[in-house]
Write a structure and sequence with these properties.
The protein has 281 residues and is α/β, with parallel strands linked by helices. Helix content is 43%, strand content 20%. The longest helix is centred in the C-terminal third of the chain and has 17 residues.
Length: 281
């Protein structure tokens, strides 16, 4: 039995692979970032789901792909919590970026992008990541992410850069004034998730010319600042993972094509692809 974790900052998906039963897919209550999360937070998250009771799933292998698994300290934080829950299991910890690459590429080379709450990208040779442009987070980077879309959208909306009727729709939908927004961003936890929460509203209004132009501009920034740093960009397909990638695929595809690249696979979550990958290894 193998358990596969795809753990993002706002969502955790799990696949339980067994030789004598169909693969079980489930979602946990929240996400976890290994860089910023607490030493017991992941343990509590896993233990809170009845289906994750270790007495019911005597896993031999754990494959964990997670946000923030970029330093030895972060990986140790994850590993120690998993070992407490599954002491008999062989534990493998990797970045969410490698998880995305394995999910959409398998053993084939490609350029891979993550576009969810945050963003990232890499060059993948079919086995490992060979190059990575640092995403730098939603303040310095994370172009094309839900958090940056939300941040830029709010700034432009509140400074009257979009049609008046859109601002009216926003006010009716969210009941937020400027002090509310400032407080949520600067004085409460996880402001990136708050900013990304406006992505569905942006998607609903993507037909408005000013929003369409805004989206194309932001995804063009993602392509230019990230994907085009890989010399193989014109040749290898660009595969994308994440809810933002799926919901805004037409704007992203146009931005990629206009820069000389071409789109491959797009999926909202890598967990199904990861389950397939680890079923064959």
């Amino acid at each position: 039995m193998k358990i596969i974790f795809d753990c993002g900052s706002t969502k955790t998906s799990v696949a339980i692979i067994s030789s004598d039963s169909p693969t079980l897919h489930l979602d946990l209550a929240n996400g976890y970032n290994a860089l910023t999360g607490g030493d017991d937070e992941l343990r509590s998250l896993i233990s809170s789901h009845p289906a994750m009771d270790p007495s019911r799933i005597p896993a031999k292998q754990i494959h964990y792909y997670g946000a923030g698994c970029a330093t030895p300290q972060a990986c140790h934080r994850v590993g120690s919590q998993l070992a407490d829950i599954f002491p008999q299991a062989e534990i493998h910890i990797n970045s969410d970026m490698l998880g995305a690459a394995r999910a959409v590429c398998g053993d084939t080379p490609g350029i891979v992008g993550i576009l969810g709450t945050g963003s990232n990208s890499c060059l993948y040779d079919g086995k490992e990541i060979t190059a990575n442009v640092s995403p730098l987070g939603y303040i310095l980077g994370d172009e094309g992410s839900g958090a940056v879309l939300g941040r830029r959208f709010l700034g432009m909306l509140l400074k009257n850069q979009f049609p008046t009727h859109l601002k009216q729709l926003f006010e009716v939908r969210f009941h937020l004034d400027i002090p509310d927004i400032i407080t949520r961003i600067y004085r409460t936890p996880r402001p990136n998730a708050f900013l990304a929460s406006f992505a569905p509203f942006i998607a609903e209004n993507a037909h408005i010319p000013e929003i369409s132009t805004f989206l194309y501009d932001e995804f063009s920034r993602y392509v230019t600042y990230n994907l085009m740093n890989y010399t193989a960009f014109p040749e290898l397909p660009v595969h994308l993972v994440g809810s933002i990638a799926l919901h805004f695929r037409h704007h992203i595809e146009k931005a990629v094509n206009d820069k000389g690249g071409h789109i491959g696979n797009i999926t909202a979550t890598p967990i199904i692809g990861l389950a397939t990958y680890h079923s064959m290894t």
